[in-house]
């Protein structure tokens, strides 16, 4: 039997921590190994408890989630940190990713979505909750619509959206889920993007996109 994913919950609200812990305890693939009430406790708990995934709130006393994430990733680069918070502000999402977080979902997400996000982050994917993904897409569209058209005029609007999500390290499966389209459709778009950009594969297309950011 596969060992359950070890979870550390970091949130300053006791009722939320307890409710989340009880919810995750009903899934045999997960095991909550500890709780932290602020960023300082989380930083101290990681080397002691050796979790696989840290569920991290952002707004906390003493040390906020962004700074705690930076410290944890600096000392444990392998650690997967999934932000679980209230804010879906795109700037906050980007700051969290820059700090080293592997995912970002909102409080109030369904149990199935939280569990799936934990598993995906554990497997090495970058994960956004559905509401967060929409904000990210809209933010990129506002910032880069003109740039995208000028830089890659050969791409359609949909192909531009998919290329931006590819550059955020989302898998084809994650892109399909975020955009509400079939996986086969995403694969076709990726193939078209590679052909239009005259690159050999997905990785090369991502590199082209990042060079233009």
How would you portray this structure in words?
This protein has about 210 residues and is an alpha/beta fold. It folds into two domains: about 5-130, Rossmann fold (3-Layer(aba) Sandwich); about 135-210, Response regulator (Rossmann fold), CATH 3.40.50.2300. Helix content is about 55%, strand content about 15%. The protein contains ten helices and six strands. The chain has a six-stranded parallel β-sheet with strand order 2-1-3-4-5-6, sandwiched between helices. Strand 1, helix 1 (about 15-25) and strand 2 form a beta-alpha-beta unit. Helix 7 (about 155-165) packs across helix 9 (about 185-195). The chain starts with a strand and ends with a helix.
Brief rundown of the structure:
This protein has 213 residues and is α/β, with parallel strands linked by helices. 57% of the residues lie in helices and 14% in strands. The chain has two domains: 5-128, Rossmann fold, CATH 3.40.50; 133-211, Response regulator (Rossmann fold).
